[in-house]
Amino acid sequence: MGTCRGSTPILNPAKEPKADQKTITCAGITFFLNPEIADDFQSCSMECDRSFFGKGLTATWPHREGCACHS
Predict the structure, then answer these.
(1) Rounded distance, CA 61 to CA 64, Å?
(2) Which of 18, 20, 58, 61 is paired with 52 by a 20 to 30 Å CA distance?
(3) pTM of the model
């Protein structure tokens, strides 16, 4: 959820992808992604803030056509 300026991925633990999902491994973590976000996810960077009031896992990626940040 979010925009290219910073998003918090909505994660659901799974052992294997659903039939239409793509598999991507980043920093040793395997993600099963819905096709509509898989291409954007390949160019993202991730940070994890584990502090008490931290933001948790945050993904960011470059601006792209159609992004709400362009308006």
Answers:
(1) 9
(2) 61
(3) 0.59
28-33 contact pairs (CB < 8 A, 24+): none
Residue 61 has, within 13 A of its CA and on its CB side, a CA count of: 18
Q: Report the DSSP beta bridge partners of residue 43.
A: none
Q: Are 57 and 10 in contact (CB under 8 A)?
A: no
- What does DSSP assign to residue 59? E
Residue among 70, 67, 71, 64 at smallest CA distance from 3: 67
Q: Tens of pLDDT along 10-40?
A: 677 888 999 999 998 877 788 898 888 787 7
The pair of three-digit structure tokens given for residue 22, joined into one six-digit string: 């793509």
Token pair for 56: 């948790």
Of the candidates 12, 6, 14, 13, the one whose C-alpha atom is nearest the C-alpha of residue 49 is 6
Structure tokens at 63: 């601006």
